[in-house]
Amino acid sequence: MGQSVMLFYLMALSFKLFGISLVSVRLPMLIVSILGILVFYDLIKRIFKNTKIALLALAFIAINPWHFMQSIWAIDCNMFPHFMLFAIYFLYRGIKEKTIYLYLSMLFFGLTMYTYGVSIYIVPLFLLVSAIYLKKQKLVDLKSIFICIGIYFLVSTPIFLMYVLNAFKINTNLHLGPITIQYFANSTRTNDMIFFSQNIGQTFINNIQSLVKTFFLQYDDFEWNATKYFGTFYHISILFFFLGIISYFKKQKQNHGLFLITLWFILSLILGIIINDININRLNIIWYPTLFFSVYGITIFINYFKNNKILKGSLITIYTLLFISFIIYFYGSYNNLIASSGCFGRQMPEAIHYSNVVLNKETIFFSPSYEIYPEYQDIIDQTKTEQINDYDILMNRFKNKKDNEAFIISKYDIGNIDINDYQYILIGDYYIIYE
To answer: Residues 47-68: pLDDT tens digits?
Structure first.
């Protein structure tokens, strides 16, 4: 257990419509991300009742590094912030317009439970606090609340039953019509939560440090999440974020939309503390409200210096240059950096399969310092494959290689090996070298 299913459902639809390809894999995340931009724009327009602020938000999110980068990486957990945004958007419209949008929001809150496992910790709590607040403000009545509860649990019951099944280790699978609720004998993610840590106190301190580092530095040492040069929302934007959030708490404006966004942000911070070793992806739920308050801060800054055209022009120039620099880096040296990381090496499973099955060799796979994802590690463990991380050990084995051995080495790690002296085949980013 470890992957969330929403993205894979959307991928299955994409495969059905367009066939199996890399484009079909990435298309759902791209489409949902674009919808996120449009919804973000319309939500801000409705909250502030100001088209100019909404257009500023549209421009800000369109050039945002995090939103740009996550939209092209098909990783399951990044569906979470988008579906949370959709749910809050319809919730806000529902309470302001007194329409069916309120109940539609519960559909999206329910679907959010399928986007990322940690949603179990934040979505029910968000709904509980929101219900108390909205009832106190007389924006919803008890009847509406109970209908909302019914819709939410109708959609999310399978995921809750799955958690119950696995929390109490009930070794059976349940079937609700076409829906299978599965028991998982093993989980790769249990140890990621503070509740299951052996030393909760020390883990709590470590998690706060990790949260502060990830949020303030906007970087987590994984270049595919955010670049250290530009961060998640550009490093300069942290100033406007604080201006925005401090202004909100200082003015205490009676704005229900701002309350929902603030609640979203606070719960995101709590989530950042209870998840161990937080990174950009694991903290993905925080970036939309962060962008919201950054836009709010920029708006306050512009209004304060509204008669200073030079200052406003300088701000526009700074962000324009930052975005141009980001694009040049992203489509330039960044591509080589990501390719050489090994994390996204193309066709590594196919290379191992070819070596093991087609060539019938015992395979030595060289993976130096980068992470091997669990699904790839399973391939290594289940085949005639030995993994080596040390280059000196690799070279020693290579000098004394046997006829029944093949070596799989990334083209970025080939080092001092002259492949022209041997039989080899290049599959994706990997050389298979053999006698």
So the answer is: 999 999 999 999 999 999 999 9
